[in-house]
Design a protein that fits this description.
alpha/beta, 4-stranded parallel beta sheet, two-stranded parallel ribbon, about 10% strand
Length: about 270
């Protein structure tokens, strides 16, 4: 089912009658991704609203994944009711998507996040593969050391989201990692976890005048609300990277469609 098709949304829900729908549109892809993900477009508002109406019509639970890129600095650890919004056009569209979904279907669970993990498409490497391939091939890679977020491993995100669904959480929650970090530091920890040299990594600073553009500012999320609701902690970066490495070694990532092994085994 094409998640961006207006006709497909209602037809698919009517045919399948799922108990739970997780809508991952354009906003669900991390703005940290390499190459950069597509930007939210005005039509995304209509698409998200269509899914919300279909879920309500057929009495399905609905979770919608949004992005931390709705925010910018100077504040850090943004709360759900925070108003330090990024003023870029894509961020404004994100706000419209969130408003549309919640207006159409007030029972929606809306989560903002920043997810990392292995790409589900072998032909389209993401942030993790791009960094690992550069490290393996000793290709220089410069990453931002100014913007910060609270990324979470995709499988950890899925586990927490399922728990939120089971407890029937409603409304807006921040579901992210338990640690604030920048892309350069993330790459350094990833290199360490996979036993690769980080000698080709370098840090770059986003110019001040660009830090209010979409996805370039401070977007770390305060997660106290969901931690309290679910009575559980959220993972730190090294915990997520450790599980990512286990997925690489165990063959788990191959389930995504034959993703080739691109990095050597870690030597103790």
């Amino acid at each position: 089912c094409d998640p961006d098709s207006l006709d497909a949304a209602r037809h698919w829900v009517a045919m399948e009658r799922p108990q739970w729908i997780v809508h991952c549109g354009t906003p669900a892809e991390s703005v940290w991704n390499l190459p950069p993900p597509p930007l939210p477009k005005p039509e995304s508002v209509i698409v998200a609203g269509t899914w919300a109406r279909a879920a309500q019509e057929f009495n399905c639970e609905l979770s919608v994944v949004s992005s931390d890129a709705i925010f910018t600095g100077p504040w850090m650890f943004h709360r759900e009711n925070g108003t330090c919004y990024c003023d870029s056009t894509p961020a404004r569209i994100l706000r419209l998507i969130e408003k549309e979904v919640c207006d159409v279907n007030p029972q929606t669970l809306l989560v903002r996040t920043n997810v990392f993990g292995f790409s589900p498409d072998a032909g389209e490497p993401g942030l993790v593969e791009t960094i690992l391939n550069a490290l393996r091939d000793e290709v220089p890679l410069a990453l931002d050391c100014m913007r910060h977020a609270t990324p979470i491993l995709a499988t950890d995100f899925a586990d927490v989201l399922e728990r939120a669904y089971q407890q029937r959480l409603r409304g807006l929650y921040h579901l992210a990692g338990g640690e604030r970090i920048n892309p350069f530091r993330f790459a350094c920890l990833l290199a360490d976890q996979f036993g690769l040299s980080m000698s080709t990594l370098s840090a770059i600073e986003t110019p001040f005048e660009e830090r209010r553009e979409y996805g370039t500012g401070e977007s770390s999320l305060q997660t106290r609300r969901i931690r309290k609701a679910l009575e559980m902690p959220l993972p730190l970066i090294r915990e997520g990277l450790s599980r990512l490495y286990e997925q690489h070694m165990s063959g788990y990532r191959d389930r995504f469609g034959g993703v080739p092994q691109t990095v050597p085994e870690k030597v103790a």
